Amino acid sequence: MTATNGKRKIRYAVVGLGWFAQEAALPSFAHAENSELVALVSDDPTKNEELSKKYGIEHTYSYEEYEDCLASGEVDAVYIALPNHLHCDYTIRAANQAIHVLCEKPMAVTEQECEAMIKAANDNNVKLMIAYRLHLEEANLQAVEIVRSKQIGEARIFNSVFTQQVEEGNIRLRDVTGGGTLYDIGIYCINAARYLFQDEPIEVFAVAANKGEQRFSEVEEMTSVILRFPNERLATFTCSFGAANVSTYQIVGNQGDLQVKPAYAWQGELKHYLTINGETQERTFEDHDQLAAEFIYFSDCILEDKDPEPSGTEGLIDVSIIQALYQSIETHQPVQIQTRDACGGKLRHQRPTSAQTIERPPVDDKPDLIHAAAPSGQS
């Protein structure tokens, strides 16, 4: 750890320098006062060279040199922004070197991988957090409070649409890397339903559709899902890689409803439309640096020896639901699940609350991308 003005900073290596790491994560360290970017890990020497110059980073490593990075004494934590199928291996290797791990979602591709990651973190006494940035974001946390306080009465229905265009060749369209609509964007809808209902689904059903475009030869074009929660509550959503950009959810109670639009965006304003007794109130939440909030929160957990709320268990539950949904797609049948028994029968003890809200100014300038492009293909 480094010290600035008497305050310790957690030193991070960013592992994987794709679009999201470059556009969202790297610039956010400027707003994360207790966190410091000290190393980059990528197999692209141009990325390492140009990004290290841009951010004044002394240490860069290839993937083959990952163990050298972990053992260097230069880093306290890693932020893993690799393809989904690599999350487990790189998390376990970090934990085994006593390095804390902030891992992007989905946590991994299978429940077994998630469980192995949790075990490695526990065995080595390191913090493991899954990067659910909306667990720190004001609009979503205020939505939680609206539901919890029963402003809309008893919450009965959750419905969401999350769609975007993904260009052919993008890693999200590859099966071998853990691509697909549910792992990449459906996970947001699943997680939102869980934190709004404050509960876990007990039965799931899903159908996938694909009109045969070449880009969807390995993964589904879109998926529609029904999640049954205890007390006969239903959550439904559709996610797609072949439709216009839409990001919205609505939660309906027996006395009103709340719509959040855009719901899952990592930048820009988010809006609430709260309707009670036929009257709608609109509220705008300003743009904030959501990645800085993640680094600040995780660093605080390390410095103060607190367990992160978006824990490995949180990541495991979402992955177990996604696996059950793919089983439903294959069998054309509903699938009963028991996520409440995740992690050796222990119930989850934490859910996100408004107390976790962290706000930092938005990143001013959109960085130039090095050998990377957004999912839509725009650089």
List the helices and strands and how they pair.
Blueprint: E1 2-4, E2 7-15, H1 19-28, E3 35-41, H2 45-55, E4 59-61, H3 66-71, E5 77-80, H4 87-96, E6 100-103, H5 111-123, E7 128-130, H6 138-148, E8 155-165, H7 181-197, E9 203-209, E10 222-229, E11 233-240, E12 242-253, E13 256-261, E14 270-276, E15 279-285, H8 290-303, H9 312-331, E16 335-336
Kindly describe this structure.
It is built from 9 helices and 16 strands. The chain has helices at 19-28, 45-55, 66-71, 87-96, 111-123, 138-148, 181-197, 290-303, 312-331, and strands at residues 2-4, 7-15, 35-41, 59-61, 77-80, 100-103, 128-130, 155-165, 203-209, 222-229, 233-240, 242-253, 256-261, 270-276, 279-285, 335-336. A 9-stranded mixed β-sheet has the order 15-14-13-12-8-11-10-9-16. Strands 1, 2, 3, 4, 5, 6 and 7 form a 7-stranded mixed β-sheet that branches. Strand 14 (270-276) and strand 15 form a beta hairpin. Helix 5 (111-123) runs antiparallel to helix 9 (312-331), helix 6 (138-148) packs across helix 7 and helix 7 (181-197) packs across helix 9. The longest helix is centred in the C-terminal third of the chain and has 20 residues, at 312-331.
